[in-house]
Amino acid sequence: MKISKKKNVGVVRSKSGFSFRMWAPNASQVYLTGTFNNWSKEPMLNEEDGYWHLMSKNAKEGQEYKFVIENGEKEIFHNDPRSMHFTTSTGSSVIYINNFDWEGDSYIPPPINEQVIYELHIGTFNRPDPAINGTFESAIDKLDFLKKLGVTTIELMPINTMILDRGWGYGIDYIFAVESLYGGHYGFKKFIKEAHKRNMGVVLDVVYNHLGPDTSLDLWQFDGWSENNLGGIYFYNDWRAETPWGNTRPDYGRPEIHQYILDNVRMLLHDCHLDGLRVDSTIYIRNVKGHDSDPSTDLPEGWELLQKINKVTKEINPRAITIAEDLGCNEYLTKQIIDGGVGFSAQWDLSGPSIFRNALSSDNPEYINLAELITMMNKRFNDDPFQRVIYMDSHDSAANGSSRFVSVIAPKDTNSYFARKQSLIAATLQLTLPGIPMLFQGQEFLETGEFNDWQALDWTKTEIKNNQGIIEAYRKLIELRRNYFGHSKGLSGKNCNLLNYDETNKVISYHRWYEGGHGDDVVVIINFGNRDFNEYTLNLPHDGEWQVAFSSSENKYVGESKKFKLSTVQVEHGSTTIKIPQSCSIVLTR
Fold first, then answer.
1. pLDDT in tens, 335-380
2. Do 52 and 165 belong together in one domain?
3. Are 165 and 25 within one domain?
4. With 0-12 CB in 10 A as exposed, 13-18 as middle and 19+ as buried, what is 22?
5. pLDDT over 70 for what percent of the chain?
6. Residue 584: inside a domain
C-alpha cells in the first residue's frame, strides 16, 4: 500500500497560532469549537482529500476544543482522535504541546542478548494509598529497587486513556493520549527519563488490534458514515471488523489508518524517548480469526502495517526492541522484512508458563515433566534464541483463570520451603536458558494470587526474611546473566547443549557458551527430584577447575536448607562427581 503521508495532522503550533487538521472524508462540513472561540463554530477548510483544516490565532495551550461534523442532517460532536490530553474521558480535548525537558537524555539500550525485561502495570505496581491508583510518580519510587535487582528494560502494560478508572489498559479509546490518573504525558515522560537516568530502558505495550471495545468509543461512525451498522471510517465495515473484543478492528486497508497508527509509533519513539514496543495480539492484526495458517481469513494489509511499524521504529531508534505477542509463534514474525518477514526483534514464547508449571508443581518425581522442558530448552526462531522472550509469568498467565507461578505450584502454602526451592529452580531456568528473560512484577519476592487491576503489589513481602533471600538469589542470577564479573559471558550467547538428561533421577545439566573458553563457559545443573545425591557423576565440557557461582540450596537464599559447602569442582577426562541436594539448581563457571 503506497501512502502519501499527510503532514501536520492533529494540533500543531506555528508562528501564526495553532493549526488544526482532522480526517472526515464523508462530512459535508466540519467546524472547530472551543474555549478560544467561546464554543462557537468556526468552519474548517475542506482540503479535498478527506482532511479538514483551520488555523486559529486565538487558541492557546491548555484550552479545550472539539470538532463538529455535519453529514446531511446529522450534527456530531467529536473529540480529536489525535488528542494527547482530555478534561475527562468523556469530556473535551485539550491543546497539548510537547515541551518536556529531557535534560540531555541520550540513553542507549543494551544489545538484545544482554537484556532482562521486567513487566509492570502502573496502576498496581506501587500504590502507597490502597484507595488510589498507582501513578508514574509512585512507580518512580521503586526504580532504584529494579536497578539494584539488575533489570535492564521495563515493559509497561498499556498506559492509554481508559473509560473506567481501573483496567489492564487494553480497552483503548485514544491511542495518542496517556491516562491522566497515571500522570498523563508529563508523568509518562518523567518515568522514562528517570528510568534512563538509572540506565534502564522502557518498552510500551501498544494495542492496534482493536479499539474500544464497544460502540461507546468516540471514533465510532466518526464522520456519520458507516455500512452494516458498523464502525465507519476508522474500522472495517464488514466481517473483517470482528475481534474477540468487539467489532472494532481498525481498517488496515485505509492509508489514513496506517498513518494514524504509524504517527502514534513516531510520537512514542521520538517524542517520548521509548526504547521499543511490545505489540499486543499481532495474530489478530494479520488474521481476522486469529489463525496462523488460514489464507481465507488473512489480512495482508495488517501484515504490511506490522512491517511498517517495525521499519519506522528502527528508523527512529536502530537499537529499539520490538516484541510481538503472537499466538501462532510463526518464525516470519521475527524474520527480516527483506526476506518476507515482519521484522520484529523477538516474540513472546507463550509456552513457557505452562512448561514451568508442569515441571515444578509436584514433589512426586512421577509427575515432573522434564521432556517438555527439554523441548523448550533450545526453542528458537530463525535459528536465533534471542528472538524469543522467555517467562514463567505475565499479566495473562497470572490471570484469566490462573494465578501467579508460586500460587499454582504451592497453593496451600506459598511461603513453604518447597515453594521457595521450586521458585528458584524456575528462576534459574528463566535466567540461564537462551532467550530474553522477562520477569513479571512481584515475581522476585514471591507475590501470590491472581493478577488483577485493583490489587496492589504487596511490597511488605520484601521485608520477610525468606523473601529477602529470594530477592538476593534473583540479583545473583541476573548478575551472572549480565556477566557482571566477567566469568559468565556464555549466558548471553546463542549456544546451548544438553549435557546430562537423567529422567529416572530427574537431573539435567546443560552447557551455555558465547565463543567458549575461560570467562565464557557456563554449566547449569538442576536436580528436580526429592532426593539428595552425595555423589553424582556428571559430564562437563572441559577439564580443570570450575567455580560454583550459584547454588539455590544455600541457606541465605531459601532458608532451612542443608549447608552446601562446595565451592569448586574438579573435572578430569570430561567428568566429575559432585554433591547435588534435592530441588536444587547450581551454576558453574570457569
1. 999 999 999 999 999 999 999 999 999 888 888 889 999 988 989 9
2. no
3. no
4. buried
5. 98
6. no
B/e letters for 426-462, b = 16+ CB within 10 Å, e = fewer, are bbbbbbbbbbbbbbbbbbbbbbbeebebeebbebebb
Residue identified by cell 520484601 is 462
DSSP 400-462: TT---HHHHH-TT-TTSHHHHHHHHHHHHHHHHSSSEEEEETTGGGT--S---SSSPP-GGGG
393 domain-assigned: yes
Establish if 533 belongs to a structural domain. no
CB 543 within 8 A of CB 529: no
Cα separation values, 50 from 9, 29, 214, 305, Å: 12, 11, 25, 21
What pLDDT, in 10s, does the model give residues 145-158?
A: 999 999 999 999 99
Neighbour-count burial of 532, counting CB atoms closer than 10 A to its CB (0-12 exposed, 13-18 middle, 19+ buried):
middle
For residue 461 the three cell numbers come to: 513481602
The cell for 118 is 521486567
Which structural domain range is residue 24 located in?
10-94
Rounded (10°) angle between helices 300-316 and 255-266: 30
Verify that 253 and 332 share a domain, yes or no. Answer: yes
pLDDT of residue 86: 94
Instruction: At 493, give phi and psi (nearest 5°).
Output: -95, 170
pTM exceeds cut of 0.90: yes
The backbone region for 421, taken as left when phi is positive above 0, alpha when psi lies in -120 to 50, beta otherwise, is alpha
Q: Which of 427, 429, 422 is nearest to 529 (CA)?
A: 422
Pairing type for strands 533-539 and 29-34 reads: unpaired
Number of structural domains found in the chain:
2
CA distances from 326 to 292, 333, 396 (A): 9, 8, 13
Kindly state the DSSP code that residue 115 receives in the 8-state scheme: -
452: amino acid identity, one letter: N
For 228, the grid coordinates are: 452494516
Rounded CA separation 129/142 (Å)? 15
Residue type, 263: D
Rounded distance between C-alpha atoms, residue 145 and residue 143, angstroms:
5
How far apart are alpha carbons 493 and 52 in whole angstroms? 53
Q: What is the pLDDT of residues 47-74, one digit of tens each?
A: 999 999 999 999 999 999 999 999 999 9
What residues are paired with 154 via a beta bridge?
118, 202
11: Cβ–Cβ under 8 A, 6 or more apart, which residues? 18, 19, 20, 80, 82, 83, 95, 96
**How many beta carbons lie within 10 A of that of residue 478, not counting itself?**
22
User: How far apart are alpha carbons 259 and 270 in whole angstroms?
Assistant: 16
